[in-house]
## 1
Amino acid sequence: MARPWCPDDAYACLSLLLLLLLPAAMATSYSSLCSFPAEAADLVVTAGEHQSIADRLNLPLPSDGYFSGGDKLLFASDDHRLPRSFSFFTRRAARTTDPAITHLVATVTLSGYRFFGGRSWRTNVSAHSVSFDLEGYYSNDSASAALCMVGSGSRARDDGLGVVIIPDVALRLRLPRPATLTRPFVTGRLEGPDFGAVTLVAYAEGDYKYGEAASCPTPPGAVRSESKVFDGNFTCDRLGALLRGSYTMEYAEGRAPSGFPLRQRHRSMHISEIYCGENGAVRAYMVFDFDDASSDAILLGIHEAPWRRGFQADGDEALVADGFWKPSQGRLCLRACRTVRSTVRESDCGIRIHFWFPAVWSIQQRSFVAGMIRNTRSDDDGDTNKMSGAISVSRTGFRGDLSDIKYHYTRVEDAKNYYHSNPELSKERNGRFPGNYSYRDFAFSLYMTTHGGYGYASPVTLGSAMVDGGTLTADDAFSRHAVAEMIKQRLLSVSYEFDIHLYRRVNSSRAWNVSRVPDRWRVSAEGVYDTKSGTLCMVGCRVINSSSDCQILVTVQLPALGGEDGTGSISSLRKKSDTLFFETLSFAAYGAQPAIEAAQAISRVDTERIMLVTSMTLSCVFLVLQLRHARKNPDALPATSITMLAVLALGYMIPLVVNYEAMFVDDGGSRNRHFIELERGGRRWLELNEFVLRLSTMVAFVLQLRLLLLALSARSTAGASGGGDDRWAAERSTLWICLPLYIAGAILIWIPHIGDGHDHQPLSQMKSAIHVPPPLSDDLLSYAGLILDGFLLPQIVSNAFSASRVNAISPWFYVGGTAIRAAPHAYDGLRARGYVQRWIPSYIDVYAGPRDGLFSVAWDVVIPCGAAALAVLLFFQQRLGGDFLCCVKRRKPGGSYEIVSTSTL
């Protein structure tokens, strides 16, 4: 029988079951909560899983929106820093005997955040949602359609154990039909005796009546052709996909124009809703972000930017707009109105917005979509084409074909002057620097050395080659243009984009609780690249407080390919008294491996995986041979060191329990030959090579455990017959010697990590940012590998105390085991000759990595030599006796040992 479907979240599963049962348990009738419309009998029922039933019935119901209120539902108070939204999902719809009335069953979910540990900004927040199962009627017998539904809801208990039922809930919505620019919203209330009222607002979907076509001025500069922007096939959906997203705002003269209807000066704008109609008709909804919203969201641990909720909160600025795409001019012209508490007044509709796709880029214009927002009512002369006082908006980050865009350098000569004034920049250096192989070699990551933070720098143009945008077109432009230019000249004109996150400290109400909030810097720079020295000298611009600062100098010594890291600095060219002056920011730069080295690294990882599986398989073989040896030699098991077998068993067990989740990876939409599916329809995948490795490790662990149990059983049997007392006494002496050595080594590893400042170094911050394992755990695991490298030590000590000359250990076992432990160090020495480890530890090392043991030039010599010495010593012990070196231990009548010279034997 098929397993019944249920979400992964147990609470969600229980809530779903309750919601399905709620209509039958509703305590309050529909007529007592909804005065309209009158109930009508169902005529036709239409249902379908995950289908928009309302659309098929031509119902302009919202799919999502914003809500305010809900304090008694445990939602945090309304604030732009905490995003909140509601969703409306129609589960069943039916026509009734009245053509103007439709019977609906739907689920409404409120989503947001709640405080825990108090109601303060300095306490933590967590995601919170409440669901309502509702049933009612939609009526479109008037110009403003209405919906009224009743039902019950549920939410999680405060302790997380079970749910709380919320009865007698009523939903009332007013839907504009048709929607217009001045009536763009669906409004309503969700009410219940347990929580009061929650106000709902959504951008209207469905029927829309467009207004008059808006006029807009000619864009400043050339515009890309429609065929290039839309790949030769214009569609309204494609236009919406290009326009939807976040835009950076820039104000002329650093301030908003006089008379502009927006109340505040914002830093960004987000187009969250955009719909298209016939003949290129477009309508949109856009929200403006507060300056401090992103920082506050990060401070609260919310990784979703507030404007991404798709709707304005109380106090937010927002615009509604409609207009038409003009294909002959390659631009979109919109007429917009400012919203005030979900209403639109005609007096707030004097705003004109137009968007276009620039064909020429420069240091201050690098957006694939650009636009202007202006207030026509402030034009005293009535000229609707007036551009003064407009606010510029732009959107970057497009991944596509930008081959038709031309770049206009304007600050290269200034950068050359700074380059020639600093002889250190032109000094030739040893090593290979980014050149004519791949444009990807010019991109680099960075971490700040004067401030906490990190960032990334990517080239926009190299010479006349546009390398921003799509990978294929960038590769083609680089090979056809940049390579030839670098061969002909030493100084190559370049332009870059820097995205930097600088940490600033935010003190909380408690002195010990200090948070770090990133301050994002975006710097556009252009200048020259010295192909001989690998240095960049550029002049940069950044937008700060909605105005541009173009007095910035950026110098970078690019990281050598496969070699040491680079360095760089960002400094202000202004006087210290200037308000835009900032102290020099220094950083270290590390580049991604060149394409050819990346291919070699992938090949190396595959080889190491094969070597790792092979070594573990050989371990299983040697364990089987040791078991066979013990079966043929009854005296072998009692003479085998229990400490040695226990250490080896732990060595096989640790990889099975440490980082078990590494076996699994999220689907992420990609499936390749390395993965096999665990269960049908699941989203978790098991990496095949990890499975083979862990399977062989599990077999080795079982065999080792079997050998340990057999040795314990044989030792116990020998002890019962009176012949195993010497062995147990020798085992105790071995434990007393080996265990303190192991503990002392662990303490020596622990001591360097006790200091408070260890975790506050920039390098540690970057390691945590890229998910490198903590240094202490690496060191302890490496030390555990060192103990396994000397796995023969307990057996040798035990033989010495018992003066045994029993052939307890098979040569296959101790010689093969020694070879397996020494092989990674030999491989590490060979790998170091062809692979230069960068400042980040080689966390891609599968074989001979930090989890396998200690690796360095010294350790790669000492450990194999030491392991070989132990194997040779064991060989002679089993041939000549455990006391062959100098002495033998003779048991006294009282049970203790005395040491006598071998000459007396």
Note: Residues 406-592 form a domain with the Lipocalin fold (CATH 2.40.128).
## 2
Amino acid sequence: MRQRRVSSRRGRFVAVYARPPRRSQSRVAELARSGFIDTEAAMRELDDPRLDVLGDQEELIAALAQVADPDLALRGLGRLLDAMGPGSDRDELLRALKGGTAQASRTLSVLGFSSTLADHLIRFPEQLRDLGDADPQERPDAAALRERMLRAVGADPVHEAPVAIGEHRDLLNALRIAYRRQLMSLAAVDLADGIEMPAVGAELAHLAGATLESALAISRAQLPDSAVPCRLAVIGMGKCGGRELNYVSDVDVLFVAESFDGADDDAALRTASLLATGAMRACSEHTAEGAIWPVDAALRPEGKAGPLARTLASYVRYYQDWAKTWEFQALLKARPVAGDRELGAAFVEQVGPMVWNASTRDNFVSDVQGMRRRVVSHIRPEEAERELKLGPGGLRDIEFAVQLLQLVHGRADDALHSGSTLEALAALTAGGYVGRDDGAVLDRAYCFLRTLEHRIQLRRLRRTHVVPQEEADLRVLGRSLGLRDAQDLTQRWRQEAREVRRLHEKLFYRPLLSAVAGLPGDGVRLSPEAALARLQALGYTDPRGALRHIEALTKGVSRRAAIQRTLLPVLLEWFADGPQPDTGLSGFRHISDALGESPWYLRLLRDDGAAAERMARVLASGRYATELMKRAPEAVSMLSGDAELVPRAREQLEAEVLTGMRRHDDPVEAIGVVRAMRRRELFRTAVADLVDQLPVREVGSALTGIAEATLAGALAAAVKAVETERRRPVPTRMAIISMGRLGGREMGYASDADVLFVHMPLPGASDEDATSAATAVANEMRRLLAIPSPEPAFTVDAALRPEGKAGPLVRTLASYAAYYDRWGEVWERQALLRAAGCCGDTELIRRFEALIDPLRWPSEGLSDAQVRAVRRMKARVEAERLPRGADRSTHLKLGPGGLSDVEWCAQLLQLRHAGRIERLRTTSTLDVFDIAVETGLLDDDDRQVLREAWCVASSIRNATVLVTGRASDSIPGDPEVLSAVSHVVGYGPGESTTFLDDYRRSARHARGVVERVFYDDPR
């Protein structure tokens, strides 16, 4: 044994015999595995005779391995044993440590995490008993903490206005010792037993309230005898009010004062200010026992420039007349925590309605969003990446998102009236305002981030929200949270922050929030009486019928009904902005009945305000898109973004249908694949048109691509059906030639598909057999497309073929050549101007186009006689084809300046000049005018007039179909339909007359140009 000298507790040195230190590699490895960093120092500590009283060191090492910082715990344990000396407390600790009790675990957890709390425990070792008594399931409530803290300063807890007894400085120290005692008890259980975060924050808030109550008792003891008695309530704000306080935090408060009956109000307010000032100092002043925390009253009206205490009436007047948006957001967490509870409750009752109606203020949502951005902008750049509270993905992101949702939706839902972030989040999730998955992610992230914040502060009892950079600190924090090392902690923290930021952006900037916030008070609550009055005010033509739809959508306690109760007040407004709100609401009910149980549907409308608004706009615009949506409700997903509304290329659609049809032998099932594609793409185009994403010319191109893919699929299905019936391949090659608006890529929603069928027998096949098979294919194709269906009809019209309906449906290439050579008239050449290959055999299409090109684009142009023939035909069409009783001035096709005028004008230019001007060889009406200007055939002013007339007429014709679901070449005469059509075209409510006047003016100008260019221009 070697001899060494150690200091005794009395300062004298005594000789002791110490065991030689063990330095084996296995010993070092054992300590390292147990979490020790400085193994040499740990072995020196373990070799210290002071620890011999603890018995088996292996058990001690095993216990230390469970704490966050074993090195710190071991050093603290030696200090604690020295501080206790012989006695019952020391014996009790030794028994606890040897027995591995909960008290031992909690003691080591405190010693092994917070040096500040360890210092407190060493100074007051008698408080170790608290750690043995602490039960994580039976923590003291607010009343118990209030009683303990008041008794610590000699005040009677039963008294309405307790007064502390004792010398002022002693009372301040007693308050601090008592506060630190309760804090240590909570921290020990938190570190060792793992209390859930909400319970920790709530107990800290209750402890803060009890401390403020005791501080008031100390302040009362300091009042001069001349002070006029007053009532004073302390209102907890921020995290204290929300019962989610940190270990080290400012405590935000407001002071509400009132005089007793008959007392002088001004004198009472002076007393209240003295009391408030004294209480704040009692908490924040530094003494031999340090300070507790600052009491911050800066959230009061007018901030630090305003009076410290106000009467209830003064607060109410201020909030009614002067308060800013952020002040109402702060009041969301207001709660009486000390002083006159009756007065505090009256304050909350008075300001509550103002808080829950704050979202109706102008720019409320944008103000809250701007405030969050300002908070982020004020973070110091060097700390931005490590800011746990204020930085992106931090606690404030969750709190601001939750508070904004609460304030917007809390007008109509009392379940959201909670100052606790997690309670409010749970209510928002239960009510359908936040998705279940999103709510669970935010709840988990908030608990983790708040617990990490608690640990960071508890380490040295410092107010900070910055994650440390040092690996040693991160390692200790990670171990306290059950994570292995610094890397695990950093990875978990970053992962939670990313999820929080993603959901913050999703919820906090949700467009639906601004819409809900903008609703009037009676519009956000869907009681039957309020809803009926609101429906009438919004302009619903059948309010009672609309009310029945609302009741069907919102009845019950299901999550679906809850979400629809949230959505409907806004949707009703959006429906009312459309031309047919009743149709919109009815359509919404049908779609919701079909898709209401699909989680993605209501989630899309709730989380994507743009999609919800688009849906409302589409449904309230008329029957066409609504009926398509009813037939394919899953198409609602297209409303989520602009990319979904971009028309698909014809090649993509054709490949889709041909691939899908291969899975079906039955031609009816095969054509079902084609119909499904067409239904979906018509809806896509209609929505893009209704939300002004597609100009009329692009609408025509999109509809043409859909028609071409439909014809290609139908042709493939028909060929397969005929081959199955004939039990041999079709002995001819077939092609479909587009004509009319299909060939010009200018189709409308109700346009027929004008086509020609051409075939060419395969080598060795007889003309008769080939023609028979080709005719069977064409007839089967038309039959399949004509099968009755609730969706928009698709008529294949071959009336432009030689000899019209009297001629054969299908001809060979040679037959077409013979007919046009012998019988072809000028009007047939004119019809061929818009011929274009559609689908089928590409070589046959090429040869057909080569056949007709000289006919439609004659190199010599037209003779004068032929020009006169074209003009006579035009006049005949105007005279004979206008429906009986139709108003010529509003007939979009055959009226003066209508589509026929403009298109005949373009076609005459082509017939006369395309033979020598190759660029005029196009099937597009508007392209003809552009090229005619470039080549000097047309004035630019005339082009603008003709282009505008064509676009306006085409837009009106399309709008009429979108509104009514039916084709019409006349502007509607019914005032309601006219109003709806004008709205879809772009006119506001009550502007139907302006709409008509504008159309007539455009058509009149176009007719003037046609008179000159078509009838008089010698060029």
Note: The first helix runs from residue 25 to 33.
